[in-house]
Amino acid sequence: MMKRYYTIGMAGHIDHGKTTLTKALTNIDTDRLKEEKERAISIEPGYAPLQLGEGMEVSIVDVPGHEKFIRQMIAGVAGIDLVLLIVAADEGVMPQTVEHLDILNLLGIHQGLIVVTKSSLIDDDLKELVELDIQDQVEGTFFESAELHFVDSIDQMGLNELKTSIRTKLEGLPARDARGAFRLPIDQVFTVHGQGTVIRGTVYEGRVQEGDHLEVLPSRKKVRARQLQVHHQKQQEGRAGQRVAINLGGINKSELSRGDVLVSTQYYSTTDTIDIALDTVDQLMYPVKQRGYIKLHLGTAEVYGKIVFFDRNELSEDGGENILCQLRLDDPVVTKRGDRFILRRPSPVETIGGGEVIDPAGGKYRFGMETIAALEKKKEGTPEDRLLDTLREQKMISKSDLIKETDLDEQEVDSFIDAMESSGDLLRNGEKLALFSIFEELLELIEDSLRADQKAHPLRDGKDRAVLLQEFPQFGKEFTEFTVENGIEKGVLRKSGAFIATVDFKPGFPEKWAKRMQQVVDSLLSQGIEVEQERFVFDRAGLPDEYKQELKHYLIRSGQFIQLDDKHLISNKAFDKAAKTLNDETDESFSLQEAKTILGLSRKYLVPFMELLDNRGLTKRKDDERTWIRNPDS
């Protein structure tokens, strides 16, 4: 049978016996700090293994109960599977019991047991009163139908029954998913003599093995897992749900702190703008203003920032609402869709609410119900919806970035990709992915743009590729380039040098000016090499200015004419005829004067013609002589 891993938490008021109960269940004292022992209260979360038999490995988190240590309490319960709500029999439900209950509810923890400690101090009649008081306090919460156990940690009363109940409860819960990318929010950092830097935390998802190369976020420091321990026992692997200590190589203790996150892949990123669904507490001391300062507790991280509303200017004291809003943080955090959080007011200190992250990569939105509708859609979207929305928004994206953007595990994304590729709905460009429908949409836009350009400039070979790639910024240059290349491969588009055109396009004279342009061609052809300046030929034909340069470049690109110099255009036929005549009537080498005699050209045309012979690789000049290096007929 495959072993399952769970973390359970103790929550409740200070001095209600959480640490004593943990020791009674595990035989481990979780008060490890000197000041904790001196003050007899828990300051930091303590951890201990709970033995519940074969096939199950369980860690207990003993979280602080004192109000001043509420942040450690939040860090401790983040990522737990089951909560034991501790109430002392001689005091009943107290203020921190209620606040812990609120925080657990806001963190989305819905599995728990109620444990009444110090039960030997009261008789059966008082037990009944305590039970009624507790049931009244937990009404409307997930503890409403929870089992209630009376125990005494000193004389061991009720502990075996409690352990049995814990095991039964855990057996009914799904095991943590170890298939995803490894993520461990760090809650303790320390050094061990001779070993170096060690971190502790609960593995949220995935798995880690000794020797793995990891990354610390948000600093992006590269580290290596040199050694792993689970409750002081060396292990080769740590899995989702386990409490793990990792000896890290490549980093100093001073470079790490609680709130950092250890990850194994590039699928996680940092963010300072988060879209959230916030459930507020029933009553607030004061309203929360638009862009009011808040403190976010997310996993083991604590970050200050501002809250931004899109449908109100303040959150009233009445509370008890579910609000779609955004957090803009002072420092980056590591999170993904579905992560739970707590939001508190720094001053005066109080819990505002909690909820879940609906988009870790929030943007800048307008105030109004249109934004609320968009956030609602994000909140309700299925995994496939999120994948499709991300592909539509990003146009082209790598698998690793797709995982980051959608906050889905790799297996879900792989299944989606396989199905979409099999149906032909997904295209690949190396490591990048794109929807076929978006490709078709852009290809149609490109064809429309090219046809409009071809109609306006029929003499050109098409549209300049560099211009075309910048024309659709909403799709991005990379995706546009990919679409153009695929259009060429599919025979929809044609490439001609630096120009792109539709495959059915052939440059030519526009119908309206065809006769006048042909007049230019006929005139230049008739003049041979000793042509008049091109501007006079164009002017005499009555061509509009915008077509003069267009026609000239078309005649050159099409191979009909050659630029003799910056003012004269000669036909290829005239050039070839003169070059052949000169070649036939000269020896291997000849002079300028010989050429003048043979061709009968004036120096005005002869000199640029001879230079053109050199430039076209037919002749090579040395002093006053030229040598044939290629036959004009070849």
List the helices and strands and how they pair.
Elements: E1 4-12, H1 18-26, H2 34-39, E2 46-50, E3 56-62, H3 70-77, E4 82-88, H4 95-106, E5 112-117, H5 124-138, E6 148-150, H6 159-171, E7 183-185, E8 188-192, E9 196-202, E10 207-209, E11 213-217, E12 221-230, E13 233-235, E14 237-239, E15 243-249, E16 261-263, E17 270-280, E18 288-289, E19 293-298, E20 301-308, E21 314-315, E22 322-334, E23 340-345, E24 350-359, H7 369-380, H8 383-394, E25 397-398, H9 399-406, H10 410-422, E26 426-429, E27 432-435, H11 436-456, E28 463-464, H12 465-469, H13 477-489, E29 493-496, E30 499-502, H14 514-526, H15 534-541, H16 545-557, E31 561-563, E32 569-571, H17 572-584, E33 589-591, H18 592-599, H19 603-615, E34 619-622, E35 625-628
Parallel strand pairs: 1-3, 1-4, 4-5, 5-6
Antiparallel strand pairs: 2-3, 7-16, 8-9, 9-15, 10-14, 11-12, 11-16, 12-13, 12-15, 17-22, 17-24, 18-21, 19-20, 19-23, 20-22, 23-24, 25-27, 26-27, 28-30, 29-30, 31-32, 33-35, 34-35
Helix pairs in contact: 11-13, 14-15, 18-19
How would you characterize this protein structure?
With 634 residues, the chain is of the alpha+beta class. The protein is 34% helix and 29% strand. It has 19 helices and 35 strands. Helix 14 runs antiparallel to helix 15. The protein is elongated, with a radius of gyration of 39 Å. InterPro entries: Beta-barrel_SelB, EF-Tu_GTPase, EFTu-like_2, P-loop_NTPase, SelB_WHD4, Small_GTP-bd, T_Tr_GTP-bd_dom, Transl_B-barrel_sf.
